[in-house]
Amino acid sequence: MLRTLGTLSVTLLFLVGCGREEASRTLALDLGVASERVRFVTARGALDLQADAREGIGGEVVVKADGLFDLDNLRSLARRATVSSILDDDGWQVVTVLLPDASGASKIGANLSAVVPNGLTVGARTSQDTLTVQGLAIADIHNTNGPIRLTRTSGSAVIENSNNSIRIREHRGEIDVRTTNGGIELTQVRGSIKAQTTNADIVVDADPLAGDSIVLQTSAGDVSLRLPDGLEVSLVAHAPEGRVNVEGLEIQRTLDTSERIEGGAGEAEVTVRIYAYRGNVSVRGVRRD
Question: To bridge 285 with a disulfide, which of 5, 229, 238, 269 should be the other Cys (CB 3.0-4.6 Å)?
C-alpha cells in the first residue's frame, strides 16, 4: 500500500573563507506520489538516513559552499538551490538535492539527513563524505571518496564505494559489498555475502543460514572470517603470497598447504570461498553464546 511520505525542510549554509554567510528557507516538497522504495541522492556531502516510527519522511538539507565567493554569488546560489522528488521508471521515488553551478566555487556540497518510516526500502548515493543508514531496509548504497556506515539494516543489497571503507553491523539479508582502496568490516551479518576490495583488509563475523555462500576477495590485504563453531562448510581458501590458517571448524581437508586449504564436512550447508593474493587468510569457528 502506497503512503504519503511527508515533506523535507531545506536550510542553506554558506561559508566564505573564515567568515560565514547564512540564508535559510523551507521548501514544501511534494512527496505525495509515493513508492515503497525511496532513493536519496546528493552529488557531494554527508547523507544520514534513520528509521522512524512516524508515517512520513522528515528531514533537513544543509547546503555548503567553501571557496572564495562574493556575497552576491552566495545569495544567488541560495535562491537557486532546491530539492526534487520524482517517481522513476523503475518504481523508485528519487529525492535529489539540486545545486546550480557557481562560478569560482572550489567545493559545493549538500548534507542531507532524513528520518524514514519503517517498512520502506531506501537507496542512497553521494560522494566526498560519510553515508550512514540505521535501522532500515536497503537496496542500493553508493558512495565515492567517503566512508559507508550501516547499522541494523536488512534486505538484499548492493553496497559500493571507492577510495574508502565500508562498515556494516547487524545486517539481515544477502549483500554484495565492493570497494577499492578501503577496508571492509562486516559484523553480525546473516545471509549470503560477497565482499571485494583492493589494497585493504576484509574482516567478517558471519552467522550464515543453510544454503548461504560467502565469497571474500582482496588483491593486497588480509582476510579474516569468523563463523559459528560446528558449522558444516565447503571451504576453499587461497593466499598465493601469504598463509592460510583454519581452526575451530571440523572439515575434512582434501588439500592442505601453507597457502591453500580446501575441504568440507557433512552436508556442507554453507559454501566459503576466500582469495587474498598478497595477504593472509584466517578462518575461525567461534562459540556463540
Answer: 229
Residues contacting 115, CB < 8 A, separation 6+: 49, 50, 51, 52, 54, 57, 58, 59
Pairing of strands 157-160, 175-178: parallel
Cα–Cα–Cα angle for 192, 136, 158, rounded to 5 degrees: 40
C-alpha 54, offset from chain centre: 24
* Cβ–Cβ < 8 Å for 148, 159: yes
DSSP summary character for residue 73 = H
**pTM beyond 0.85, yes or no:** yes
pLDDT digits (tens, 9 = 90+) for 6-53: 666 656 555 544 445 555 555 555 554 457 888 989 888 889 999 987
CA distance 167 to 185: 5
Contacts of 40 by beta carbon, 8 Å cutoff, 6+ apart? 47, 49, 95, 96, 112, 114, 122, 123, 124, 125
Helices (H) and strands (E) in the chain, counts: 1, 26
The residues with which 19 forms a beta bridge, in sequence order, are 16
Amino acid letter for position 250: E
| 3-class DSSP assignment, residue 277 | strand
The closest alpha carbon to 158, from 237, 148, 127, belongs to 148
**163 vs 115, which has greater pLDDT?**
163
Coil, helix or strand for 78? helix
Residue 150 to residue 159: CA distance in whole angstroms: 10
Separation CA 202–CA 198 (nearest Å): 10
Closest CA to 64 of 113, 16, 109, 100: 109
Are 248 and 229 spatial neighbours (Cβ–Cβ below 8 Å)? yes
pLDDT in tens, 209-222: 989 999 999 999 99
Q: Tell me if 37 sits within 8 A of 91, measured CB to CB.
A: yes
Please report the sign of the dihedral spanned by the C-alpha atoms of residue 222, residue 231, residue 187, residue 139.
Answer: positive
Beta bridge partners of 124: 40, 141
